[in-house]
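Q: How do we represent a protein-ligand complex in a form that can be generated token by token?
A: Start from the inputs.
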Amino acid sequence: MTRRAMVLLGGPDSGKTNFIGRLWSALDARKGALVAVGQPDDIRFVLDTADHLFQGHFAPRTQVTDGRRDFEITVAPAAGGAEADILLPDVHGELWRKAVISSEIPTEWMNELEGADGALLFVRIGSDLNVRPLDWVVSRALLQRFGHNEDQVTLPTQVMLCEMVRFLELSLKKRPDGTNPRLSLVVAAWDAVDVGKFAQGPVAYIKREYPMLAGKLADTQKLEVKVFGLSIVGGDLTADDAFRAEYLEAGMDGHGWVATQEANGGWQKNPDLTLPVAWVLGF
Ligand SMILES: Nc1nc2c(ncn2[C@@H]2O[C@H](COP(=O)(O)OP(=O)(O)O)[C@@H](O)[C@H]2O)c(=O)[nH]1
Ligand SMILES: [Mg+2]
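Then emit the structure tokens for the protein with magnesium ion bound:
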């Protein structure tokens, strides 16, 4: 069997853990492009997250001390075909942030990055922890100046995202067919945008909010990139009581979607939450 590792990265509070929990439920429900083959070994944290979602709550933020947890599972294309073992390490966003500030990736993650041929990069609408863009030159100078005192640096989110993309360019390996590694850029909490922004799509959102990241991704010769909007249950369980009541009534199945771009350029909600992973695998 092919072992296909991919990395999951993004800043703190960007939606990574909730996605992993929801992804497991979607793989297990066997209705998407990608289905689970058997039961993974140790997925207690994934089940915990899924449980929170079942009960109508987003999973609470991961504690820094948790460090890293892996979700490892065998998947196959629903249409039939070769199985793949995928490894999705959920590294706490704070640890990525520190790695970017110090320009040093722990050896253990470096091995993970070098063994992977794809990645999912998360940003989230409305995160309190999104740090507004600063001038790149100023940010660079800040990084150099405070590089050894990492807790004092407020790293602008887009500087961090660009550095993460640079890590990926440097370390991901080619796909088994010799083509460039794939990166799904996932804009989480896409249910939080209004109809007009939804129609413009997450690519336009990235260009507007993170122009430097958009530029970096447009220029890269080393990665194949696709952008998705994501809503893990189709609405906001924290702030929207009417939505939460309807969700609790109907259950999680059928809730949640991925926004994908159609051939005509328009954006559609697709109920298949496995798509960002299936695309990275090429399934
Ligand atoms: N409205 C909405 N909020 C979300 C969604 N996904 C995540 N969130 C919010 O984002 C917070 C952080 O998500 P989490 O998965 O813990 O992020 P992580 O720190 O990257 O693992 C959650 O507590 C939710 O409040 C979504 O699809 N829709
Ligand atoms: Mg987390």
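The pocket of magnesium ion (ligand 2) is lined by residues 16-17, 62, 90 (CB under 6 Å). The longest helix spans residues 157-171.
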